[in-house]
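Run log, item B.
One chain of 352 residues. Sequence copied directly from the ordering sheet:
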Amino acid sequence: MTFLTLTNIQKSFGPVKVVHDFNMSIDKGEFISFLGPSGCGKTTILRMVAGFETPTSGTVVINGKDQVRLKPNQRNIGMVFQAYALFPNMNVFDNVAFGLKINGMAKPDIEKRVKEMLSLIHLDHLGERYPYQLSGGQQQRVALARALAPKPQVLLLDEPLSALDAKIRVSLREEIRQIQRQLGITTIFVTHDQEEALSISDRVVVMNAGHADQIGTPFEIYNKPATRFVASFVGTLSTMDATVVDADKGIAKVGEQVINLNQPLAAASGDRIQLAVRPEAGSITEGAKGDVALDGRVISSQFLGSVIRTRVNVAGNTISFDMFNDPGVRPPAIGDEVSVKIDISHLHVLRD
């Protein structure tokens, strides 16, 4: 059931338009990630949901109620920032209790709720400590507990993990997702880290220059990118220049090698197009199967333990392929002439 709806959202700062006609419906309990580079508009959309920015046009509706004219403290939204924003003069208990006190909750109820929150983030034993006595990961968990304590209808997370080291980020993002599932709270998570977005989201919004280039499940975003930007921004991608031979039949040439793409092409004969393939989607091992076979020469081979990463020159295009290490098979060597086998379903024709 749709719980949060953004309709025709636009935002301009003076003459600069930073969000262009954004539309999205989010179900209750859904975990949505906004993914994109700096300046793409993802945080601006989050701030409009929170009420810190007012849309130039469009509506923000939560649970059937338009939020645009409401102040941030009237929206019942919890927010966690990149900088933990804990009160340094308050201990952990009082930081988590802050919103409850502002709402006028009775003291016994506050104590009960704070204890529930500290148990949820596994910091029951640190209630008397101050922020400076906590690690970065602990501080961010306290910030999460403070945001969740008043039982908000929506949780907003603005790059909450970017200040943490890699190992803590992985464990904390899993913890955030587990807590979100446990509470069933509708959540929007802003990040520029594709691994974070793909690993914990129900759906991902890939933002590019104020536009939503694609909205879909992590599986769809990675395996079926809708635009050239999505294909290049999410995951590793190799591209090949090709020339259309027969647009209706989907026949093209990479260099002098003819391939059948098995789909009509939105181009004319003689036009140049770009084909894209993920590193795990092809194989150069002997006996490998694939609808498309392209001859090339190995230009580098890196042994990475469980994976061997090989780069192949195919008609002047550099294509990367990853394959699992097999102790019984010699890794490719620089200069080897190989045949690259690709399943046609894994070969994408890119559009702008």
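Observations after the first pass:
- Residues 243 and 272 are 5 Å apart (CA to CA).
- The chain has a mean pLDDT of 91.
Flagged for discussion on Thursday.
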